[in-house]
Design brief:
2 copies of one chain form a homodimer. The first copy, chain A, is an all-alpha fold. In chain A, 73% of the residues lie in helices and 0% in strands. The first copy, chain A, is elongated, with a radius of gyration of 19 Å. The N terminus of chain A is likely disordered. Chains A and B meet through helix 7, helix 8, helix 9, helix 10 and helix 11 of A and helix 7, helix 8, helix 9, helix 10 and helix 11 of B.
Chain lengths: 197, 197
């Protein structure tokens, strides 16, 4: 605990969260290469040693700050195969609707991934893992990674369009209108014909 | 033509393209707010007056630099309603496959749109217009804007996943595998049940 500041400061999980928020903002604003640990520390109001203590290197900090703003395992528990398309779309949209902080985190995550190959590589792993969690109770053959990734492309495009770029027809629709429209497309990725190369 | 430099310089369309390339890189790297006309001029190797001559204000430059790297009207000419899903996916992917410059431009465009509300607003208009072009020969009722936007979310997510984030199952698939897998989902947005609110 050598790097831990003394006195009445935010508890360890509070400081950790503050560092992650500052890191997300800084990576998103400056890109991975130009963001420094020192700047993140100063924005989070902590000693740089504390960042090293929690996350080790700058790459460790990047990796921790690129976590998805929800737990995919929890979010997609109990999906039923025949209604998977609509259920998945409804649950994803509900998370975004109810959690403005998750939306901001998602924008930061996309900007960072677009700024640097290393960040894109981490995001790739995070997304592929999250998508596979969704499907593992439903499909387990060799088409599963492609199906999971296809669902990811649709959900990623939908949330980008609704919450970030705010394309009018998508941003103005109700959650249930989008569930009805997009659910069948996602259902097609769950159980429609898909050939894995 | 007052701002036009004399002598043997790149022709007007050459200089214009050079400015747009420098603008895209600069907006993507620094975001709209921190990118200056002076820096874009210096990177393009032209006099700042030439940028004002071609594009007027910084916002005019942003608008011109956010054009899609293809002409949607041309790209989607002669789509047949019953095969629209597969045709649209095949044509979009073919543009990206054959044109690495278009891919880079797309990344820059997404990064800029994610960095600034003004840039997002322009991208919104550009994307909505492009998507409507695709559909106008096929659907013309009041569901058309939502259908077009839904197709946009799927194509945007697919191209991001394949060319930018490079999610393995999507990046490794052949164009025809993706056409077969994603075509039916896009076809659903063209003629499946969709309720516009």
């Amino acid at each position: 605990m050598s790097g831990r500041p003394k006195g009445r400061r935010p508890g360890s999980s509070g400081a950790r969260e503050q560092i992650l928020r500052a890191a997300r903002d800084t990576f998103a604003e400056l890109g991975y290469d130009r963001a420094s640990m020192r700047l993140v520390a100063s924005r989070a109001g902590v000693d740089p040693a504390l960042i090293h203590h929690y996350f080790g290197t700058k790459e460790g900090l990047l990796q921790a700050s690129l976590r998805l703003p929800f737990d995919p395992e929890e979010l997609f528990a109990g999906i039923t195969p025949g209604q998977a398309g609509e259920q998945i779309v409804r649950r994803i949209l509900t998370v975004w609707e109810e959690n403005p902080a998750a939306r901001q985190q998602y924008v930061a995550l996309m900007r960072t991934a677009l700024s640097n190959e290393q960040a894109a590589a981490i995001m790739r792993t995070v997304l592929a893992g999250a998508a596979l969690h969704v499907l593992e109770s439903i499909v387990s053959d060799r088409t599963a990674p492609l199906r999971a990734a296809l669902i990811g492309t649709q959900l990623g495009g939908l949330t980008l369009g609704r919450y970030v770029i705010k394309v009018p027809a998508i941003a103005d629709a109700s959650v249930e209108e989008l569930v009805a429209a997009v659910g069948p497309a996602v259902q097609h990725y769950v159980d429609g014909p898909v050939v894995a190369g």
